[in-house]
Amino acid sequence: MELYHILNRGTEKRTIYMDDRDRARFVHDLFEFNDTKPASNVAYSFRKIMDVGHPYIERERIVDLHAWCLMRNHYHLLVSERTEGGLISFMRKLNTGYTNYFNERYKRSGVLFQGKTKKILIHSSAHFLHILHYIHLNPLDYLSGAREWRNSRVADSTKAKAYLEKYPWSSYADYCGRKNFPSILTTEFFKESIGNVEKETLSYLRNPAKSSDKLPERFLE
Fold first, then answer.
1. Cβ within 8 Å of residue 143, ≥6 positions away
2. Which residues belong to any copy of the Transposase IS200-like domain (predicted)?
3. Which residues 6+ apart lie within 8 Å of 5 measured at CB?
């Protein structure tokens, strides 16, 4: 399995989610566009967010989404392909579909995202473990006393963890057993490979240097 960290920012670092309605729409698109069907206004008309993941919505997924996080001006995804060419198709539909929605809602035109989507192949087991934490810890940029988390400086790790659990626009809550948007997510791979993600996150917050245990190479095949 090849695992990719996907990152895209707003053009000129502009805000791409103005409110929770925009964020909910993007989550909806993560579900709807993960399908072999071509994107169209009919097939992908916006349903109520409560409809996301209902069993009557049939899909044939083209990617597995292992982790995600929405920030004000960018997003992070951790994705693997299920079908050949699935990642390119999914990202094209996702970026185009959300841009069309955003431009229509805010009466604007032109590009929304900054250039080509950044796609990073996860090469090593150390990077594999780090990237899950990195994606989930991004919302700490909004928490006073935790904004230096990238430099291993978090004033209160317990408070930081509680903040992450309550942040609704990432996959962290689902990994902690609190159903948020489980229908868009594939958690089995990471749960089987690193065990208790909630416990590992707290350990990582307290001492990132000691949380770099290597995963068995078989999990990267």
1. 159, 160, 163
2. 1-138
3. 76, 77, 78, 119, 120, 122, 131, 135
Backbone phi and psi for residue 8, each to the nearest 5 degrees, phi listed first? -145, 140
Distance of CA 160 to the CA centre of its chain: 19
Q: What is the mean pLDDT of the chain?
A: 87
Contacts of 114 (CB under 8 A, 6+ apart): 8, 9, 10, 11, 12, 13
**One-letter identity of residue 188:** E
**Residue pair 29/97 in contact by the 8 Å Cβ criterion:** yes
Among 168, 176, 214, which Cα is nearest to 68's?
A: 168
Q: Where are the domains positioned within the chain?
A: 3-119, 123-220
pLDDT 10s digits, 201-220: 888 888 765 554 444 444 34
Fold of 3-119: Alpha-Beta Plaits (3.30.70)
